[in-house]
């Protein structure tokens, strides 16, 4: 139904406008009697065998929603009704910021892809915290970044601010230094500044009576040498895992007319590269840390390929937009079939 009727209508409109409309529509539907239970019965796969125990947390199933969809923690409860095992909110910054000028979100229909140059648009971490106080049992990841105007030399202060603000309201943290849409942000992936940033957060976390898992989200555009650096950084700082991968700046093999738009590319063109990164990290580290696989998952097979490559959990974003919520159920059913 989604691909046959809903998606063609949605794709007639500007992608950012329809994103906001969809949020309002899903929120409205979930306020109607019995609709939440209908969503859960339609998409949620309840099976203890799907549970994943990772870094001290229990995930109801291994299929999550990637950061960027619910930036401001406005819809996570309703999205949980669609069958996700966890929802990652953000990227959040200390102060609210409008992001980059519009138009900044582009569908590449021929490639089943999206290009975005949103630029960490969000209302600020403190506003999101107020909404997270209404959590009805959804396992939440908090994806954190720095404000555009904050120089890299002071970036750690922004991450620390977000970490402290979110600590009591999220189940794990994701340090985002890999978005291509904030100027110079990816420079923080270099070994020295990244080690310093992660170690600062790790030390702050150690002061807590109930420390939270800290993960690093990396770009798919890193070289093998840089990926080896990532493995070494994880070992040195003893953070809890890696999310592989964010969007890419590559445009190789694209067919769509708007393929030259500036920004991060997500969707099917990223499928192979993100799986390669997962496999490299898993094999070269000898499975030393958990990996959440994300990038180009448009089918159950795509998800299984990432799990086979070494991912412990997977996340959807562009595939969720193109394929609809049935993809979540299909992946979970496919996992069960292999057990």
From TrEMBL:
The way it spans or sits in the membrane comes to: Peripheral membrane protein
Q: What GO CC terms are in its UniProt record?
A: cytoplasm; plasma membrane
SUPFAM superfamilies in alphabetical order: FMN-linked oxidoreductases
What InterPro entries does the record tag this protein with?
Aldolase_TIM, DHO_dehydrogenase, Dihydroorotate_DH_1_2, Dihydroorotate_DH_2, Dihydroorotate_DH_cat, Dihydroorotate_DH_CS
Active site (UniProt): 179
Q: Which reaction does it catalyse?
A: (S)-dihydroorotate + a quinone = orotate + a quinol
The pathway it acts in is:
Pyrimidine metabolism; UMP biosynthesis via de novo pathway; orotate from (S)-dihydroorotate (quinone route): step 1/1
**Residues binding FMN, per UniProt:** 67-71, 91, 143, 176, 217, 245, 267, 296, 317-318
EC number in record = 1.3.5.2
| Chain residues that bind substrate | 71, 116-120, 176, 181, 246-247
Cofactor binding, per record: Binds 1 FMN per subunit.
Q: Subunit details for this protein?
A: Monomer.
The record ties this protein, via PANTHER family, to: DIHYDROOROTATE DEHYDROGENASE (QUINONE), MITOCHONDRIAL, DIHYDROOROTATE DEHYDROGENASE (QUINONE), MITOCHONDRIAL-RELATED
What the protein does comes down to: Catalyzes the conversion of dihydroorotate to orotate with quinone as electron acceptor.
HAMAP family in UniProt: DHO_dh_type2 (MF_00225)
**What's the protein name?**
Dihydroorotate dehydrogenase (quinone)
Give the gene symbol: pyrD
């Amino acid at each position: 139904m989604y691909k046959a009727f809903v998606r063609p209508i949605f794709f007639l409109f500007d992608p950012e406008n329809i994103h906001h409309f969809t949020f309002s529509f899903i929120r409205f539907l979930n306020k109607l009697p019995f609709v939440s239970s209908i969503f859960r019965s339609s998409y949620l796969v309840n099976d203890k065998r799907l549970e994943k125990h990772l870094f001290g947390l229990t995930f109801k199933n291994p299929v999550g929603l990637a950061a960027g969809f619910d930036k401001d923690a406005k819809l996570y409860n309703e999205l949980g009704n669609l069958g996700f095992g966890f929802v990652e909110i953000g990227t959040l910054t200390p102060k609210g910021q409008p992001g980059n000028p519009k138009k900044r979100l582009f569908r590449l229909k021929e490639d089943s892809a999206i290009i975005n140059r949103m630029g960490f648009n969000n209302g600020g971490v403190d506003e999101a915290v107020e909404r997270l106080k209404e959590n009805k049992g959804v396992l939440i990841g908090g994806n954190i970044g720095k404000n555009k105007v904050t120089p890299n030399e002071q970036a750690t202060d922004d991450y620390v601010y977000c970490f402290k603000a979110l600590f009591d309201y999220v189940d794990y943290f994701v340090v985002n230094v890999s978005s291509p849409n904030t100027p110079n942000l990816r420079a923080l992936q270099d070994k020295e500044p990244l080690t310093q940033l992660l170690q600062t957060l790790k030390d702050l976390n150690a002061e807590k009576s109930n420390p939270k898992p800290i993960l690093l989200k990396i770009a798919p555009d890193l070289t093998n040498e840089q990926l080896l650096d990532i493995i070494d950084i994880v070992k040195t700082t003893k953070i809890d895992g890696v999310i592989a991968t964010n969007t890419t700046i590559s445009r190789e093999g694209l067919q769509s007319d708007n393929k030259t738009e500036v920004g991060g590319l997500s969707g099917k063109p990223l499928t192979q590269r993100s799986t390669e990164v997962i496999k490299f990290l898993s094999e070269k580290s000898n499975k030393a840390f958990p990996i959440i696989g994300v990038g180009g998952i448009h089918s159950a097979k795509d998800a299984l390929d990432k799990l086979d490559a070494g991912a412990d959990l997977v996340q959807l974003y562009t595939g969720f937009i193109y394929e609809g919520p049935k993809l979540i159920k299909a992946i979970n059913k496919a996992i069960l079939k292999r057990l």
